[in-house]
Amino acid sequence: MRGFARRELDLTGRAAETLKLSVLACAGVFALAVSGCASAPIDLRGEDPALAGALDIQTSLREEADAVVTRVDAEGWTLRPPAGEAARSFLGRLLGGAGAEEGGEDAGDPVATYIASTGDAAALQDLAELSDAVEALSASAFAVAGFDRGLNPDAIDRDIAAAERALGATRRASAFFAEVGMVAEIDGLDARLETLIDAQKNLAAAADALAERRWAARHDLTG
Question: Are 175 and 79 contacting, i.e. CB atoms less than 8 angstroms apart?
Fold first, then answer.
């Protein structure tokens, strides 16, 4: 009986050890599976080509919006000079008319500076390029707004913010070029300005369409 009991205990011990090793092996496999999932996130683009196209358009929309804002700011197409420039001009006048010495009445006037440094043809080209950029952005925004499923409302928030930043920059540029047209006689500028204003209105409508698309997404009214 004692021998049988020892053999039974030995068998029980081996069974327990085997079970322990099996549990450890399963845990290791599970850990590897989880690690693999964490290191290789699922890409929904491959599962839905249409969604992949919409996500690409969203990326283009934000890049196009950034390009519009950057162009307007870099070129100085605004009636308000940058805060730093205005402060330097004011300080210069306080210290003895430095602003007048450096440029007379035109110092710090972005419109006068632009007219003095830009030819008529270049001004018309600037307007045409900006109008084309705004229209391209509007087309991307309308495309995103027209996509009927799968878009994240938070992502659409970013699209709206980008479009509205570009819209603000376009409005500043429109006011700037309107002032240029009042100061300088440039043949064809009024027509080019009307084209920019039409593009501006189109972008405003596109931003509104994005807002409606976001509302639909938040209320589960899309597929």
Answer: yes
User: How far is the C-alpha of 191 from the C-alpha of 183, rounded, in Å?
Assistant: 16
Q: Which residue has the tokens 């950034």?
A: 66
Report the amino acid identity of residue 16: A
- From residue 87, give the alpha-carbon distance in Å to each of 28, 80, 111, 141: 66, 12, 18, 38
Q: CA geometry: angle at 184 spanning 105 and 178, to 5°?
A: 95
DSSP for 144-191? Answer: HHT--S---HHHHHHHHHHHHHHHHHHHHHHHHHHHHHHHS--TTHHH
d(CA 145, CA 101): 53
Q: Which long-range contacts does 63-67 make (Cβ < 8 Å, 24+ apart)?
A: 64/133, 64/136, 64/137, 64/140, 64/166, 65/137, 65/162, 65/163, 65/165, 65/166, 66/162, 67/133
CB-based contacts of 67, cutoff 8 Å, min separation 6 = 133
Name the region of 97 (left: φ>0; alpha: ψ -120 to 50; beta: rest): left
Q: What is the pLDDT of residues 184-218, one digit of tens each?
A: 999 999 999 999 999 999 999 999 999 999 988 88
Reported as a single tens digit per residue, the pLDDT across 102-160 is 545 555 799 999 999 999 999 999 999 999 999 999 999 999 999 877 788 899 999 99
Q: Say which residues have a Cβ less than 8 Å from residue 122's Cβ, sequence separation at least 6.
A: none
Q: What is the CA radius of gyration of the chain?
A: 32
